[in-house]
Every structure is written in structure tokens, then in C-alpha cells.
Amino acid sequence: MSPGHAENAAGMRFCGQCRQGRLAEAIAFHHRAAEEEARETQGTPAAAVLRLGETYLLADRIDDARACAERALSLSRTVGERSIETQALRLLGEVAACGTSSDADQSERLLGDALAQSKELGLRPHAARCHLGLGALHARTGRPERSEGHIATALAMFREMEMPYWIEKAEAELRALA
Predict the structure, then answer these.
(1) What's 49's DSSP letter?
(2) Which of 37, 101, 133, 153 is the most exposed place for a label (fewest CB within 10 A)?
(3) Which residues contact 137 (CB under 8 A, 6 or more apart)?
(4) Which positions ≥6 away from 90 have C-beta within 8 Å?
């Protein structure tokens, strides 16, 4: 199985498990996958660590998610994996958004950096997720006018890319603003 195919298969399994609320199973799967990829490549690949961090965030294991995001960011920068770097910045921004109000500035900066990089690299799904993250952050910090613009942009992008899971998420964020 090619690395790209394996990564897509892992991503699809991750999405299915998380959408079904099977977070403990998703965490165990991605932990094993990260260990296996580390053995095969004599290191810990950034993509595997990132997927584990995403799973931890969904399971509200914020400290674990932060550690994985920081590790994925470091690894991606070491080997020049800019798309993974962008995703790690976004994940760090989402993790910071879960913290105290003093983390809101850090979250906005990280999500903004990830958005700029996503646009530069042409990573539309990641750019849309950054917009959604910024919109949710602005809603949480009492800036609905900024929130609505980001969420509307995310929703339009998700619709253009036909991403139903994320369309549903963005629509829910917009409803919450009303």
C-alpha cells in the first residue's frame, strides 16, 4: 500500500470513528499507527502525530492534543512538510481556543498564520477550517461581527468542496450566532 493511500485510509477510519463518537478507539488506532510509522521511517512522522493530536482534541484531552500539535509542528519544520506545518498551526490555534480568555490572542495569531499559509499553499480545506476556527473563536470572545464573516466564508468554501461533515459544523456555528 502506498504511503498516500495508507494516509487516506487512516484519515477515513479516523473520521468514521470520531463521527460515531468512538474516540477511545480512534485514539488507540492513531497511537498504534504513529508507532508503526515511526518504526518504518526511523522517526515519528508529523502526519501521524498530527492525526493523534486531532483525535485527542475531539476527546477533550487538551494537554495531549497540544503536545502532539507542538511535536507535529517541530517535525514538519525539520523535514519541510509545509502542509503538515499548516495543519499543526491550526491545531495549536484550536487548542489555544479551548483555554482561558488570555489564550484567545494566541489562538487568533496561530489560526491567522495557518490561514495565510493555507492560502499560500492552495490548501482550501485547511483554509476553510481556519476560517471556521476563527469564527468560533470570535463568537466565544464576543465579536459576532467578525465571527459571522469567517463562518460564512468557511461555509461557502465547504459547500464548494462538497464537504458535508464540515458544512454541518459551519451551519451549526451560524445557527449558534442567531
Answers:
(1) H
(2) 101
(3) 93, 97, 104, 107, 108, 111, 147
(4) 110, 111, 114, 118, 126, 129, 130, 133
Q: Which three cell numbers stand for residue 173?
A: 456555528
Rounded to whole angstroms, how far apart are CA atoms 77 and 57?
A: 22
Query: CA 170 to CA 152: how far, in whole Å?
Result: 8
Start-to-end Cα distance in the chain: 47
Cell numbers given for 154: 468557511
CATH of the domain at 135: 1.25.40.10
Predicted confidence pLDDT, tens digits, the chain (178 residues): 333 334 444 444 445 555 556 667 766 675 566 556 655 554 558 888 998 899 899 889 999 999 999 999 999 999 899 999 999 999 999 999 997 666 899 999 999 999 999 999 999 999 999 999 999 999 999 998 899 999 999 999 999 999 999 999 999 999 999 8
Domain boundary among 51, 80, 109: 80
How many angstroms separate the CA atoms of 89 and 81, rounded?
Answer: 12
